[in-house]
Amino acid sequence: MMDSRRESSETLRNKCAACYRQYNRMEHLVEHMKVSFHSAHEPRCGVCAKHCRSLESLREHLIGPLPKVECARVFAARGCSICLNLFDSAAAVRYHRASTCQFTRAAPMPRGSYGGRAVAMACKMVGGGSDGSLDICARVCLIGEDENVIFQTYVKPTTTVTNYRYEMTGIRPEYLRDAMPLKLVQRRIQDILCNGEPLWKIRPRSSGRARILVGHGLEHELERLGLEYPAFMIRDTAKYPPLMKTSKLSNSLKYLTQAYLGYDIHTGIQDPYEDCVAAMRLYIRMRSQAHPRDYASGSGETQNNYPAWRQRELERMSPEELLALSGSDYYCCTASVLVY
Asked: Any bridge partners for residue 126, and if so which?
């Protein structure tokens, strides 16, 4: 009986302070911390404070098919199903959702200022090739943080269009006949993003004038536009780990908007302005989250201070002390140059 209690106590001491996994030996917990990359950036349950790898994991923990019973009970009474935060009362939740959390579909706004350092971009593609499966950029939109349009145009195709995908894009052949040439579109977008700073001079953690590019699936859109932009200046909601599925696959922008902004998009013909607004709102929501620590790098090798020569010292630390050494394996969206 005494041995059983001693073993239980030892296992409890070897419990991860982030995800609450328990290990028989302290050395196993240290190995777990080396590869888990737990950090202050991970979404946490407001009831039990457990860290989750993504917002999708936290959603399953709180309101999924098999939630943690006690956490689900408390969250049902005082939690917001959109931002997944916990509040003091049900009345506070209702006020929060009505005033700050629940968004509505945006109406087109007039051209205005650039509104902050970030710029959101979205494209709509028509089809090329014999079967219409080749994506050709036919429309592009850029907005500022204030959701005002900075640049919006149809793009003249450089190859034959075989499928205008009208039901989804709303684009007709006559819209593209006198559209802006791709070369000019490239130049305009590059000018907006670089903002007077030469592309080759843009550096991480610099205080230059270049703008942060926000969007969903930007790698594909930049490729279709024939543009290059530094990865550390891109915030892609399709690749930001807290917004991805538990299987590390991307969620659609439609799902992210419905789940984390509280309204629907793509209910008819898809407008790139609407996609820009959704991506920008998601980015600003992630950026505004409380982040106790900021990291200069997303590399686990530099973030997690668990070298082999410290092994004996690490095994004497508490789980909380081990967690304090741990850092994210992805860049945080709060820093001006980090890749989210």
From this structure: 136
Assigned token pair, 68? 């943690």
Cα separation, 280 vs 256, in Å, equals 12
Tell me which residue range forms the domain holding 258. Answer: 118-288
Query: Is residue 49 one of the residues assigned to a domain?
Result: no
Burial of 333 (0-12, 13-18, 19+ CB in 10 A): buried
Q: Does residue 334 fall inside a structural domain?
A: no
| Count of domains forming the chain | 1
Q: Is 132 exposed, middle or buried (0-12, 13-18, 19+ CB in 10 A)?
A: middle
For 155-191, write each residue's pLDDT tens digit: 999 999 999 999 999 999 999 999 999 999 999 999 9
- pLDDT tens profile 303-336: 567 888 999 999 999 999 999 998 888 766 654 4
pTM of the model: 0.88
